[in-house]
Design goal:
Chain lengths: 278, 236
């Protein structure tokens, strides 16, 4: 069980103070798959970093199993947007890294690393160097490195954002299966609503400036889910509507005050022939 | 071409030696073992001095980078020392250790320590922060984070610094042996000058170049290549 109570974060920059997060209250149950979505700059990643212990809260408290979180630790593994694998180690040595730090014997950690590499279907590349792998393969190695630690909480910060859509959908399926098999608590940050609905039990929509929780959606759909399922599409549209307002607000702040999004979702152009040749 | 210029006789042979003469001189030097003894003496000094400087340079660099205070105070000093040609340490070394072995080794060590320290400093500072974040979430702290992440990540830069340090050490050694001669390659070079034996002077110069090239190519070149291969930097 993970609890954020009134968590706030203020960054001091040369141009004054920026309120990144304000009064975040969030409880994540054990074994839950939670997605955080929101416009850029709403503090999704900051929440993740705070839970990971990589950043400290400016106000409020964060608890894991009733104990306050004070620093980073191997019980809360983070998977970053970039694979962040070590280029001086081979694939399997990268997967073993956390176990080596934990002092697991060489034979056992090799076995465990192999097991998790098989889970992401990369056992064949165990002794390759990182630069010999494609982007999707690297991110899978990063996933198996995170899984190998067997932490009960897995924090994922837009892990599939930089991948092409085919690879991403393969990894969505893999991640759903892995989650079902391991029953870890996963907190998944993304700006892709479809991805969030596809994967999570609960989607938390955030608002920006200051970063706060706007709305929560519980996703009660059967797994495995696919993007073309009617239920998925319905919820995605609901959340999109909620988000649009927020995205527009951020866009206005980041561009200039004259910015406005198109009112209709259907663009009519003079040379369109919708239904003309039925 | 060299032989042709020599044959025209523009310069007398004590100013411009013939390649054959040089070759013969080098051969004789190896036959009577005087060159081998000299190379041995020089190599012993440089290996000793260079090892000292690697240990000192690495620890100095790592020590400085570990504390912000030391970094601010010592980094400019380090840069200053690096620009000081190592031969300028010789008078000081002679006063401290006397003419001979110790002062040459000291000059060699000083010559390369600072460039190795600077490279270590720069390498560690340029380690991508994401590696440290990974290490922290995986539970690596303090010394363990240093040995498993920071040093390997900085290693390509450190190796470049060590290579540069080697060439500084090699120069410092020759300068030291020229000015404070006892034996070694620098000594037979001065001996050649004193005897007006141009063949010997040029012969020793060629030997020095060859040794420098061989070590650069076969030791540092190999290590650097294998690191670049591992990191995937050879594919551009």
């Amino acid at each position: 069980m993970l609890k954020l109570r009134g968590a706030g974060k203020i960054y001091s920059t040369n141009n004054g103070k920026i309120k990144a997060l304000e009064n975040i209250n969030l409880t994540v149950a054990r074994g839950e798959f939670l997605s955080l979505v929101g416009p850029s700059g709403c503090g999704k990643t900051t929440i993740l970093n705070i839970i990971a212990g990589l950043e400290k809260v400016s106000s409020g408290k964060v608890y894991k199993e009733g104990k306050e979180i004070t620093g980073a630790g191997p019980d809360r593994i983070v998977m970053f947007q970039e694979p962040a694998l070590f280029p001086w180690l081979r694939v399997i040595e990268n997967v073993e890294y956390g176990l080596k730090i934990a002092g697991v014997s060489k034979k056992e950690r090799r076995e465990r690393a192999m097991h998790y590499l098989k889970m992401v279907h990369l056992a064949r590349f165990a002794y390759h160097f990182i630069h010999e792998l494609s982007g999707g393969m690297r991110q899978r190695v990063a996933l198996s490195r995170a899984l190998a630690m067997d932490s009960d909480i897995l924090l994922m910060d837009e892990p599939f954002a930089a991948l092409d859509s085919q690879t991403r959908s393969i990894l969505h399926t893999e991640l759903q299966q892995i989650w079902c098999a391991t029953k870890k608590t996963i907190i998944f940050v993304t700006h892709n609503v479809e991805e969030a609905v596809l994967l999570a039990d609960r989607v938390v929509v955030m608002a920006a400036d200051p970063g706060r929780i706007k709305k929560e959606y519980r996703i009660n759909l059967a797994r495995p889910r696919a993007p073309e399922h009617a239920g998925v599409i319905r919820i995605v549209n609901q959340i999109m509507k909620e988000l649009k307002e927020e995205v527009e607000k951020v866009a206005r702040a980041e561009y200039d005050s004259g910015w406005s999004l198109q009112k209709t979702t259907f663009l009519l152009s003079p040379d369109s022939n919708v239904g003309g040749n039925i | 071409m060299w032989e042709v210029i020599f044959r025209t006789g523009i310069w007398p042979d004590f100013l411009f030696p013939s390649p054959l003469g040089v070759f013969q001189n080098v051969l004789e030097g190896f036959q009577d073992r005087s060159f081998i003894i000299a190379i041995g003496a020089s190599m012993k000094r440089i290996l000793l001095g260079y090892s000292i400087s690697v240990v000192l340079g690495l620890s100095l660099g790592l020590l400085i980078v570990a504390s912000k205070y030391l970094d601010e105070v010592l980094s400019p000093l380090l840069l200053g020392f690096q620009t000081l040609p190592s031969i300028c340490w010789l008078p000081l070394a002679i006063l401290w250790f006397g003419i001979g072995e110790d002062s040459i080794i000291f000059v060699v060590a000083v010559g390369s320590t600072f460039s190795i320290a600077m490279a270590t400093l720069g390498g560690v500072k340029n380690v991508p922060p994401i590696y440290m974040r990974v290490a922290r979430t995986m539970g690596a702290k303090g010394i363990k984070a240093y040995t498993t992440v920071i040093i390997p990540a900085a290693f390509p830069t450190i190796i470049t610094g060590m290579k540069q340090g080697w060439s500084f050490a090699w120069r410092a050694l020759m300068a030291g042996e020229l000015l404070s001669p006892k034996d070694g390659l620098g000594y037979i070079l001065t001996l050649g000058r004193d005897l007006h034996d141009m063949n010997q002077v040029v012969g020793v110069m060629i030997i020095i170049i060859i040794i420098g090239l061989v070590i650069d190519k076969f030791i540092f070149g190999k290590v650097e290549y294998s690191i670049r291969q591992r990191w995937g930097l050879n594919r551009a």
